[in-house]
């Protein structure tokens, strides 16, 4: 057997009574060799993590150790597997049988519990959820095209065939794997289970949503007449370039237009702040917003402005579809600064 010492892998003398005697059975030889290999791999994995990684993992490990005995039992391991580093659901969603399988896989010394070194190994195998609840919710809601609160066979098929080129058989297999309560649909907890088992890749879902943006329910939308004018103090939706041109011809105050996309997380995060700015500057600016992928006319609007990222903001003066200023990003301080700079420049020009 070999051991890791001082960062160097070297041959070590086996403990008394544990050497591989010539008469040892092949099964015992393989078991002991396997144990040594696993311990070496575990030590190397732990040493490959940065001090920051280990500190964060230690915090998650200690938080999961409810009884404070410095080990994780099956129920404590279940708790940490069901949570990301920033959220937990309020109900159990990971089957205990699956937790027990993971316990057996990573319990190197076979004592029926997970120590910190074993936990590091588990984390480096990507067994832990990472990220924010909003990211998982956004991915789930993006796949749930009809807004039912579930992903059905048709919606799963749309994702897997479009994004992965999967076969119908592979779609059915994934649905069977994720549908733990056998109701022929995937709820959010089951979706998290597929993410955690890496049957579904979160970033791949976001790429799929970019390729197939969320379709809006036109039956629920309020039809806006071309002659409708924006209301001061509110964020007014624009549904195409023709409406934008009409507003520019009628509104006397400068106009700021926010370009967003339904899949854009920073856009969603900035939405409430944009509304507050609209109310705060209601006497000086008209606030508009457009979802770039909503229809062919909004796509034309975005293309004409050569939008490269979102959210993007464009300021117009009365009568001309020619931005006098533009900036990007969901930074509240930068937004306020650019608005005030525009106002100061406009005052200076009028003197």
Distance between the amino and carboxyl termini: 86 Å
The SSE order reads EEHHHHHHEHHEHHEHEHEHEEH
- What is the oligomeric state here? single chain
The general outline is elongated
**Poorly predicted ranges:** 1-22, 214-227
Question: How can the largest sheet be summarized?
Answer: 5 strands, mixed
C-alpha-based Rg, rounded: 28 Å
General description of the model:
- With 351 residues, the chain is an alpha/beta fold.
- It is built from 14 helices and nine strands.
- Strand 1 (2-5) and strand 2 (8-11) form a beta hairpin.
Give the helix/strand layout.
Layout: E1 2-5, E2 8-11, H1 26-48, H2 51-64, H3 74-81, H4 96-106, H5 116-124, H6 133-143, E3 151-152, H7 153-164, H8 168-178, E4 185-186, H9 188-196, H10 202-211, E5 235-237, H11 241-250, E6 255-260, H12 265-280, E7 286-291, H13 296-304, E8 312-316, E9 325-328, H14 332-350
Parallel strand pairs: 5-7, 6-7
Antiparallel strand pairs: 1-2, 3-4, 6-8, 8-9
Keywords:
351 residues, alpha/beta, 5-stranded mixed sheet, two-stranded antiparallel ribbon, elongated, disordered N terminus
In short:
This protein has 351 residues and is of the alpha/beta class. The protein has helices spanning 26-48, 51-64, 74-81, 96-106, 116-124, 133-143, 153-164, 168-178, 188-196, 202-211, 241-250, 265-280, 296-304, 332-350, and strands at residues 2-5, 8-11, 151-152, 185-186, 235-237, 255-260, 286-291, 312-316, 325-328.
């Amino acid at each position: 057997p070999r051991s890791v010492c001082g960062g160097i892998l070297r041959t070590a003398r086996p403990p008394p009574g544990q050497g591989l005697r010539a008469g040892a059975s092949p099964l015992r030889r393989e078991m002991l060799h396997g144990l040594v290999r696993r311990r070496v791999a575990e030590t190397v994995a732990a040493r490959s993590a940065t001090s920051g990684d280990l500190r964060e993992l230690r915090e998650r490990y200690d938080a999961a150790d409810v009884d404070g005995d410095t080990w994780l039992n099956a129920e404590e391991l279940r708790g940490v597997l069901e949570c990301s580093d920033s959220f937990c659901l309020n109900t159990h969603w990971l089957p205990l049988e699956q937790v027990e399988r993971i316990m057996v896989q990573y319990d190197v010394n076979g004592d029926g519990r997970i120590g910190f070194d074993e936990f590091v190994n588990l984390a480096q195998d990507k067994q832990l959820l990472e990220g924010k609840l909003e990211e998982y919710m956004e991915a789930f809601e993006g796949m749930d095209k009809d807004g039912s609160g579930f992903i059905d066979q048709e919606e799963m098929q749309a994702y897997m065939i479009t994004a992965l080129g999967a076969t119908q058989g592979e779609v059915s297999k994934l649905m069977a794997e994720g549908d733990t309560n056998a109701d022929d649909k995937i709820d959010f907890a089951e979706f998290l289970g597929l993410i955690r088992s890496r049957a579904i890749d979160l970033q791949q879902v976001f790429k799929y949503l970019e390729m197939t943006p969320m379709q809006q329910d036109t039956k629920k939308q309020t039809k806006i007449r071309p002659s409708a004018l924006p209301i001061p103090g509110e964020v007014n939706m624009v549904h195409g370039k023709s409406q934008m041109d009409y507003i520019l011809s009628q509104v006397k105050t400068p106009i700021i237009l926010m370009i967003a996309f339904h899949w854009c997380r920073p856009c969603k995060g900035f939405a409430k702040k944009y509304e507050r700015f609209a109310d705060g500057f209601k006497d000086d600016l008209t606030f508009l917003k457009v979802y770039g992928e909503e229809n062919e006319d909004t796509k034309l609007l975005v293309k004409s402005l050569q939008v490269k990222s979102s959210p993007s903001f464009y300021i117009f003066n009365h009568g001309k579809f020619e931005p006098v200023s533009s900036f990007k990003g969901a930074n509240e301080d930068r937004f306020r600064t650019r608005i005030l700079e525009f106002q100061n420049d406009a005052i200076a020009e009028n003197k």
